[in-house]
Design a protein that fits this description.
Elements (H helix, E strand, L loop, with lengths): L9 E7 L9 H9 L13 H22 L6 H18 L4 E7 L6 H10 L4 E6 L6 H14 L9 E4 L7 H15 L11 E7 L3 H5 L4 H16 L5 E6 L12 H10 L4 E6 L7 H18 L3 E4 L7 H16 L2
Parallel strand pairs: 1-2, 1-3, 3-4, 5-6, 5-7, 7-8
Helix pairs in contact: 1-2, 3-11, 6-8, 6-11, 9-10
């Protein structure tokens, strides 16, 4: 439908994880995270909150140390707000008036706050756009579960909802991600393509989720394949996983193990690519930039670089705008 014919009051809800902006917010953020049954699945639901309290109590001092190293808090809220405004501007240039809302799963602004604003603004058609390219029950699924618990589909104020569940293979997203990788590759001293190893690092999830049908792993692999197709599949590359929590079996190999393996194989130039993250936050700024850089130095990898997260990259924002336009066209 042409933008000029579009009569509805359009809203876009951007999902993300959220993150503490101050050190005194780390503990309650961790509690919210581990109290989610889509993150930690227990056979007895009554144990969920006590376990979340225990884990957050045990981990918050260590986690606070990580946040101190990246400036005292996560920039995720600021970046997501900037993405929302940039998306509105991109749609406006295409002739579509829409309001973008940010709903975080585990910290402010919560999805509950976004829903209140959506009702207040009398949004009639809501496009739900998770800022997770690949679907997992632990990310997009959890946020959708929360949204569904807040919106009565038969309520007088409830908007019609269109959900973009995943966009791991979207051509414009792949182009934007490949662009950041290409710029990162250009920074190495030895430009022989065979002498730069591209290491894609994705957030891990428990193996049990995949065994129960979660499509996350297959979608991550397809994103990597499509990016490498653009860059030249003959380039050496690997996929690894980070951010494991707890004793359960999680997807591997770990990024730590992979960096060490590459060193043993004689690799001296490594480009880390955050493949499941589109914004800078603790997993990129601490784990990739500090923790694994230290591992690379320890094992003698001379040139370690990291491709930046997409944040408000113009190509990425245009990709998001096109996803919204396609959702509106399918009305």
């Amino acid at each position: 439908m042409p933008a000029s014919q579009h009569k509805e009051n359009v809203g876009i809800l951007l999902f993300n994880l959220g993150g503490p902006e101050r050190l005194d917010e780390v503990r309650p953020f961790l509690y919210n995270l581990f109290a989610d049954p889509d993150i930690i699945r227990l056979p007895w639901r009554a144990l969920q909150k006590p376990l979340a309290w225990l884990i957050s109590t045990q981990r918050y001092r260590k986690s606070s140390g990580y946040y101190k190293k990246i400036g005292g808090g996560s920039p995720l809220r600021r970046i997501t707000d900037e993405q929302a405004r940039a998306l509105e501007a991109a749609l406006d240039r295409a002739g579509i008036r829409a309001r973008a809302y940010v709903g975080m799963r585990y910290w402010k602004p919560y999805i509950e706050e976004a829903v209140e604003a959506i009702h207040r603004d009398r949004i009639s058609h809501l496009i739900v756009l998770p800022l997770y390219p690949q679907y997992s029950i632990s990310t997009t699924g959890s946020s959708l579960n929360k949204l569904n618990s807040l919106i009565d589909p038969n309520g007088a104020r409830s908007p019609r909802i269109s959900v973009i569940e995943h966009w791991y293979a979207d051509p414009l997203y792949i182009e934007a991600l490949a662009g950041t990788v290409g710029r990162g590759l250009s920074e190495f001293p030895n430009q022989d393509p065979e002498r730069i190893h591209i290491l894609f690092s994705a957030h891990s999830v428990p193996v049990s989720y995949i065994e129960q049908g979660d499509p996350y792993l297959d979608q991550i692999k397809e994103t990597v394949r499509l990016v490498m197709e653009r860059l030249g599949s003959a380039r050496p590359h690997s996929l690894s996983f980070q951010s494991k929590v707890g004793p359960a079996k999680w997807l591997g190999p770990s990024t730590d193990e992979t960096v060490r393996r590459l060193s043993r194989e004689g690799v001296s130039q490594v480009l880390l690519v955050p493949v499941s993250f589109v914004s800078e936050h603790i997993e990129t700024l601490y784990e990739l930039d500090i923790l694994y850089r230290d591992v690379a130095e320890e094992v003698g990898i001379a040139h370690y670089r990291r491709a930046p997260a997409l944040n408000c990259d113009a190509d990425f924002i245009n990709a998001l705008a096109r996803l919204v336009q396609n959702a509106l066209a399918e009305m």
